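Title: Comparing notes on inverse folding

I've been comparing how different people in this forum approach sequence design from structure. To keep things fair, I'm posting one structure and asking everyone to reply with a full sequence. Here's the target:
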């Protein structure tokens, strides 16, 4: 409940609209309640004495009041929709902003599917419940109280029927509400599951097709789908019994009022008009109880949704700027120093990097070589602070990266990740992400260096070709080259290429590396690779094995000093290369 109230704190700015809506609902209720009173007058003063004129006159008045009620109801609906949609928009925007500032720690903690469900389904849940809460709660309260007073005024004698009818209806509801609420909460979790299956299916469609897993996935979806359907059916089965029971309860109450009323009229305790009005008041009172019940069914769902949203909103962000950050020295060179760096992923048992110490000087190309899973990507992800070191220090130009604002740090780094990420938009826009103020000439220049220009020109609209979601209309190597162009255009004084040349063929890679020479001149370059050929010419190669450095030096030095390096070389280079290197 606390979390729902926290979200409702966002309603402050809509207070005026809420007050307006509640007032309009009051008008609507007043209009509705006026109708039985007029009806009572029509019966007593029109129908019984046979005064047709009076019936017409009051009938028209009834129509007018009913019209006012409808207008008030439409206006109230309009205002509450405005409030609830506004609240939804505000929550979504806060959610998005917060998630945007998440570091990879928080993304790993939640996962994409649930973040998507929370920002869509859960927010909608809050929106709907807010609208219902304002409309139904005020309606039920106003109607309940006013109708009770009016019913009592109409006939204190008949009020006794309500002493039995209200607790009976309330009891029926209480008995049914608990299981229904539990089922609705379950439905929310099951929808989460469906979303996860659907998402994985869409993302992994190629693998699913290639491995003939379509049937398996269909079954997986059917199970998730069936779970939700069954739970819905169970919930609706209960509701299907509840609703007729309530109707029976209400009809019995009407019969009781008529029976008791008839006796009362005989005895002179009440009159026909009052009895007719009383029946309508009684129905309104009982309907208010039903409205309140619907709210009670909805509320736990809204609370659950709000807990899921607030959990994200209140997740502290691991990687933050210091309150009093330092700045880099004026003369920025781009030297990188790893000093006894160790790193452990949260929830992992063992560190994936241990005691990493090496330096990359400005103007140097440092290759990071190692087998799959040896920690190469993890190591370079520490440079732009995608993660923070667990122990030790990572210095850039002598300043610990944790001490400087993240923006200042990242502005200096051209980072090309291992897996190319392409956004929906044109080719040009995708490259421009690296440098928002880049001119078209700069973009073409960067694409030329990344060996992307030729294929981009062949696209239907060249640089203005729209790339579809996830870059599905491009090949893996093409996406990679756009991603490389994006890094190149940034021209930071530090370049980090995380195994991003592996999707290119040897010839293209060689051309790219030759073209890169001028761009990276004077900068510090960290080049992650699995292929020896990619790092052989580096000024320094750091060999990683199971998260530890097992060799540092040039290609020649490592051939003599590092057994692991030699093994990698022998496993990768052709006989021809080995002969040329004097190794065979
Ligand atoms: N988010 C994560 N949470 C927990 N463990 C992780 C995470 N990412 C990577 N790891 C683990 O860290 C280790 C090193 O992974 P990393 O991606 O750095 O290796 P790599 O050398 O770049 O491998 P590859 O050459 O295959 O890309 C692996 O054992 C991996 O299972």
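Reply #1:
Here's my take.
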């Amino acid at each position: 409940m606390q979390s729902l109230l926290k979200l409702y704190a966002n309603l402050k700015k809509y207070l005026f609209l809420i007050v307006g809506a509640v007032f309009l609902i009051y008008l609507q209720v007043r209009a509705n309640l006026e109708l039985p009173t007029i009806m009572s007058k029509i019966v007593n003063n029109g129908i019984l004495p046979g005064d047709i004129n009076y019936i017409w006159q009051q009938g028209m008045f009834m129509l007018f009041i009913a019209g006012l009620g409808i207008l008030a109801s439409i206006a109230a609906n309009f205002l509450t929709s405005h409030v609830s949609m506004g609240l939804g928009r505000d929550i979504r925007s806060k959610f998005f902003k917060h998630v945007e500032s998440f570091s990879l720690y928080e993304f790993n903690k939640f996962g994409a599917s649930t973040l998507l469900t929370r920002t869509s389904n859960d927010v909608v849940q809050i929106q709907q419940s807010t609208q219902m809460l304002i409309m139904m709660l005020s309606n039920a309260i106003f109607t309940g109280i006013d109708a009770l007073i009016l019913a009592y005024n109409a006939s204190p004698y008949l009020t006794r029927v309500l002493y039995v009818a209200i607790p009976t209806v309330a009891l029926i509801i209480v008995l049914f509400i608990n299981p229904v609420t539990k089922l609705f909460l379950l439905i929310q979790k099951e929808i989460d599951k469906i979303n996860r299956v659907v998402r994985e299916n869409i993302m992994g469609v190629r693998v699913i097709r290639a491995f003939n897993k379509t049937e398996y996935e269909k079954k997986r979806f059917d199970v998730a789908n069936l779970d939700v359907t069954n739970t819905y059916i169970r919930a609706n089965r209960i509701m299907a019994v509840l609703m007729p029971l309530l109707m029976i309860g209400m009809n019995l109450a009407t019969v009781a009022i008529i029976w008791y009323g008839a006796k009362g009229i005989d005895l002179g305790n009440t009159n026909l008009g009052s009895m007719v009005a009383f029946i309508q008041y009684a129905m309104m009172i009982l309907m208010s109880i039903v409205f309140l019940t619907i709210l009670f069914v909805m509320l736990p769902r809204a609370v659950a949704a709000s807990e899921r949203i607030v959990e994200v909103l209140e997740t502290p962000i691991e990687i933050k700027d210091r309150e009093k950050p330092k700045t880099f020295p004026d003369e920025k060179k781009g030297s990188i120093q790893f000093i006894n760096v160790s790193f452990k992923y949260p929830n992992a048992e063992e560190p994936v990097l241990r005691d990493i110490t090496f330096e990359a000087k400005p103007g140097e190309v440092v290759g990071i070589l190692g087998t799959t899973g040896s920690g190469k990507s993890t190591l370079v992800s520490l440079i732009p602070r995608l993660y923070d070191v667990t122990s030790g220090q990572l210095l850039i130009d002598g300043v610990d990266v944790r001490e400087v604002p993240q923006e200042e740090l990242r502005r200096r780094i051209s980072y090309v990740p291992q897996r190319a990420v392409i956004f929906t938009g044109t080719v040009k826009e995708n490259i421009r992400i690296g440098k928002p103020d880049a001119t078209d000439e700069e973009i073409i220049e960067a694409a030329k260096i990344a060996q992307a220009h030729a294929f981009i020109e062949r696209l239907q609209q060249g640089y203005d070709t729209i790339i579809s979601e996830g870059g599905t209309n491009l090949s893996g190597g093409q996406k990679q080259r756009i991603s490389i162009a994006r890094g190149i255009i940034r021209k930071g004084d530090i370049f980090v290429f995380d195994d991003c040349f592996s999707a290119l063929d040897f010839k293209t890679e060689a051309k790219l590396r030759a073209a890169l020479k001028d761009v990276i001149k004077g900068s510090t370059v960290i080049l992650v690779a699995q292929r020896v050929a990619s790092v052989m010419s580096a000024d320094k190669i750091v060999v990683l094995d199971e998260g530890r450095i097992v060799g540092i030096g040039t290609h020649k030095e490592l051939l003599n000093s590092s057994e692991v390096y030699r093994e990698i070389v022998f496993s990768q280079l052709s006989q021809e290369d080995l002969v040329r290197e004097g190794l065979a």
